[in-house]
C-alpha cells in the first residue's frame, strides 16, 4: 500500500481547526445526554452538524474503500467544522457494518459508506440480509468508482490478457487468485472473467488483503482481479504485472495499461463503487447538506488527485440517481451470479 496505508491514518478524520484532536474513545462513548444536549434537531440544516459524525465503514482499516473514504472525509470535515469518526466494522462481505448503519438512529450522526457488494451483489449472494439496501437507507450520493485490475505475478509467462487466457486454458484450475472473500468485487470480477473466457481458475479467499500479498509475491496465489490500492505497491515493486483494467476507459493512474476491451475481451467491466448513505428516515435537509458537502469535497482538485493516485475515478451521483443505480446494479449482478452458478450463502 502506498503512503495512505493504515498506519498513516488516525481513526478520526479531524477538521482543519488547529489543535482539535478529540480522543476516539470519548467520541464513541457519547451517551444519551450528549444526544439531548445537541438538541436532536437533525432536520434543521443550519444547526447541523453540532457534534462529530460517526461514519460506519463495513471493511477493514487500510482497505481500498477505507483509504478512499478517509480522503473524502478529511476534506468534508474541513467544510462542516466537525470530525468524522470512522468506525470500521468488517465481516460477512460488508453485511455486518452495513446492517449496523441500517438500524441506527436517523439523526444524521451515524452515516454509512458502503459499496457495490453490500448494496447490490449481496442481495443475490446471501439467502437473507439483515437489511434491505433500497428500503433501509436514505442515499446521500456516490463519490467514486474503483475498477478491478487484472494482475499476475511477474515471474509467470503471460504478458498480455490474451496470453493469460491461453495460459489459463492450458492449465485449468492451476491458477490461484486471491480475494478478500466470497462475493467481494474481486471474486465477482474473477468469476465473470471465467464466464466470459471459458477458463477455470481457483478461488483463494482471505480475511484481509494483507494476508494475500505475501502469497502473491511467493507465486502461491499469483493472480488477482484487484482494486488498484490493494496492488499498487506490488506493481511499483515489479512483483505484479498489470494486464488490463475492467473498465470502459483506462485508469488515470495506469495510463499504459489497456482496458479489457482494448485487450480483446469485450463486455468485461467490473468495478467497486463507493457511496454515502444515512438510515432511512433521516431528514431531507440533512441529506441535502451532506450531499453538497460531499460534492464540494469530491470536486476539490487535491482530493481528485489523491483519488487518482489510489486508483479511484471520481464520480458524483446524487441521491435519486444513486437509488436508481443501486437498483440497476442489483439486477445486473443477480443475472451474472445466477449464470455463474454461485449458490446463496
Number of helices: 12
CATH class of the largest domain: Alpha Beta
Strand content: 15-25%
The radius of gyration over CA amounts to 20 Å
Indicate the low-confidence ranges by residue numbers. Answer: 1-43
Biggest sheet details: 11 strands, mixed
CATH superfamily of the largest domain: Bordetella uptake gene, domain 1
Helix fraction by DSSP (H/I, runs of at least 4):
25-40%
CATH topology of the largest domain: D-Maltodextrin-Binding Protein, domain 2
Distance between the termini: 31 Å
Q: Which structural class do you get from the secondary structure elements?
A: alpha/beta
Q: What would you say the CATH architecture of the largest domain is?
A: 3-Layer(aba) Sandwich
**Mean pLDDT over the residues:** 86
Kindly give the count of domains.
2
General shape: globular
Reading the helices and strands in chain order gives EHHEHEHEHEHEHEHEHEEHHEH
Q: Could you list some keywords that capture this structure?
A:
alpha/beta; D-Maltodextrin-Binding Protein, domain 2; eleven-stranded mixed sheet; 11 strands; 345 residues
Q: What does the model show?
A:
It is a single chain. The chain is globular. 48% of the residues are buried. Helix content is 39%, strand content 20%. It contains 12 helices and 11 strands. Helix 3 links the parallel strand 2 and strand 3. Helix 3 crosses helix 10. It is an alpha/beta fold. It has 2 domains: 208 residues, D-Maltodextrin-Binding Protein, domain 2 (3-Layer(aba) Sandwich), CATH 3.40.190.150; 99 residues, D-Maltodextrin-Binding Protein, domain 2 (3-Layer(aba) Sandwich). Strands 1, 2, 3, 4, 5, 6, 7, 8, 9, 10 and 11 form an 11-stranded mixed beta sheet that branches.
Amino acid at each position: 500500500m502506498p503512503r495512505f496505508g493504515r498506519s498513516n491514518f488516525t481513526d478520526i478524520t479531524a477538521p482543519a481547526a488547529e489543535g482539535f484532536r478529540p480522543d476516539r474513545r470519548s467520541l464513541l462513548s457519547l451517551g444519551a445526554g450528549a444526544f439531548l444536549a445537541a438538541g436532536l434537531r437533525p432536520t434543521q440544516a443550519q444547526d447541523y452538524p453540532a457534534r462529530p459524525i460517526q461514519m460506519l465503514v463495513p471493511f477493514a482499516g487500510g482497505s481500498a474503500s477505507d483509504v478512499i473514504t478517509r480522503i473524502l472525509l478529511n476534506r468534508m470535515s474541513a467544510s462542516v467544522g466537525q470530525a468524522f469518526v470512522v468506525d470500521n466494522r468488517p465481516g460477512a462481505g460488508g453485511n455486518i457494518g452495513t446492517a449496523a448503519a441500517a438500524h441506527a438512529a436517523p439523526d444524521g450522526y451515524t452515516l454509512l459508506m458502503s459499496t457495490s457488494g453490500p448494496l447490490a451483489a449481496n442481495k443475490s449472494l446471501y439467502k437473507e440480509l439483515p437489511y434491505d439496501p433500497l428500503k433501509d437507507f436514505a442515499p446521500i450520493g456516490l463519490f467514486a468508482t474503483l475498477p478491478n485490475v487484472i494482475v499476475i505475478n511477474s515471474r509467470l509467462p503471460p504478458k498480455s490478457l490474451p496470453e493469460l487466457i491461453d495460459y489459463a486454458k492450458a492449465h485449468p484450475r492451476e491458477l490461484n487468485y486471491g480475494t478478500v472473500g466470497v462475493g467481494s468485487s474481486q471474486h465477482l470480477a474473477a468469476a465473470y472473467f471465467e464466464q466470459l473466457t471459458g477458463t477455470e481458475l481457483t478461488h483463494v479467499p482471505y480475511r484481509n488483503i494483507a494476508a494475500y500479498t505475501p502469497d502473491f509475491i511467493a507465486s502461491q496465489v499469483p493472480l488477482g482481479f484487484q482494486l488498484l490500492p490493494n496492488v499498487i505497491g506490488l506493481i511499483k515493486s515489479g512483483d505484479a504485472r498489470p494486464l488490463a483494467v475492467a473498465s470502459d476507459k483506462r485508469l488515470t493512474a495506469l495510463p499504459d495499461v489497456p482496458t479489457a476491451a482494448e485487450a480483446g475481451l469485450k463486455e468485461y467491466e467490473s468495478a467497486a463503487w463507493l457511496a454515502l448513505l444515512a438510515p432511512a428516515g433521516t431528514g431531507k435537509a440533512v441529506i441535502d447538506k451532506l450531499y453538497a458537502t460531499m460534492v464540494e469535497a469530491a470536486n476539490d482538485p487535491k482530493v481528485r488527485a489523491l483519488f487518482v493516485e489510489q486508483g479511484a475515478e471520481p464520480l458524483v451521483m446524487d441521491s435519486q440517481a444513486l437509488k436508481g443505480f443501486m437498483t440497476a446494479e442489483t439486477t445486473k449482478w443477480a443475472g451474472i451470479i445466477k449464470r455463474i452458478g454461485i449458490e446463496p450463502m
